[in-house]
Design brief:
The strands form two sheets. This protein has a three-stranded antiparallel beta sheet with strand order 1-4-5. A three-stranded mixed beta sheet has the order 2-6-3, with no helix packed on it. It has a domain at 139-197: Roll (Nucleotide Exchange Factor Grpe, Chain A, domain 2), CATH 2.30.22.10. A hairpin with a 2-residue loop joins strand 4 and strand 5 (181-184). It is built from five helices and six strands. The termini are far apart. It has helices spanning 3-42, 46-84, 88-111, 116-134, 197-202, and strands at 137-139, 152-159, 168-173, 176-178, 181-184, 186-193. Helix 3 packs antiparallel against helix 4 (116-134). 63% of the residues lie in helices and 16% in strands. By secondary structure, the chain is of the alpha+beta class.
């Protein structure tokens, strides 16, 4: 190899190293710029961050307090209802017995209203009514009242000249409410109003 060729090669080598140094310098500058941008983005105001954190936990505390208040109210309501209606099953089972007793009382009064049996049964009837009242059980108003499907159960309908249409003519079986909740509907006969004169003539 000639001396001239050797000198040419030796001159090319420094140029390559110089290029590599320039590339490394550019990459280093880019990396520093990226780090600066990241640090700027990650930098947050500590006071603002603390305010956001406090608001977050305050909201959670308010929600938990509301849930606790609702739970307490629900438990108090359920406890109150349990006390009010604790005897509802017992009273419901007693109602058929009372129905039979009232039928016997009516028969005794029809036979002899002044007999000792009639008077004694009337006293028992009064005690039963006082017991039911003390438990919060109240008879449903029926005769003469407007028919109410929430309180009355219509057994039949009859024409009536005296009782307007839609009102109760008579009561077949007494109904009761327990602390304003229906315990048993009253069985009633409802008026259809005056009988149609055209129907009477056709018959």
């Amino acid at each position: 190899m000639s001396k001239k060729n050797k000198e040419t090669k030796s001159e090319e080598i420094p140029e390559t190293k110089e290029n590599e140094l320039e590339i490394e310098e550019v990459e280093s500058n880019d990396s520093e710029n990226e780090n600066e941008e990241k640090s700027d983005a990650e930098e947050v105001d500590p006071l603002e961050d603390a305010k956001n954190e406090a608001a977050h936990w305050k909201d959670i505390a308010a929600r938990n307090q509301a849930e606790l208040d609702n739970y307490r109210k629900r438990m108090a309501r359920e406890k109150s209802d349990a006390i009010k209606f604790a005897n509802s099953n017992l009273l419901s089972e007693l109602l058929p017995v009372i129905d039979n007793f009232q039928m016997g009382l009516s028969a005794a009064i029809n036979e002899d209203p002044d007999s000792i049996i009639s008077k004694g049964m009337e006293m028992v009837q009064k005690q039963i009514e006082e017991f039911f009242t003390s438990q919060g059980a109240v008879p449903v108003s029926a005769v003469g009242q407007e028919f109410n499907p929430n309180l009355h159960e219509a057994i039949s309908q009859e024409s009536s000249e005296q009782v307007p249409e839609g009102k109760v003519i008579s009561e077949i079986r007494k109904g009761y409410t327990l602390n304003d909740r229906l315990l048993r509907p009253a069985n009633v006969v409802v008026s259809k109003g005056p009988e149609n004169t055209e129907e009477q003539n056709e018959s």
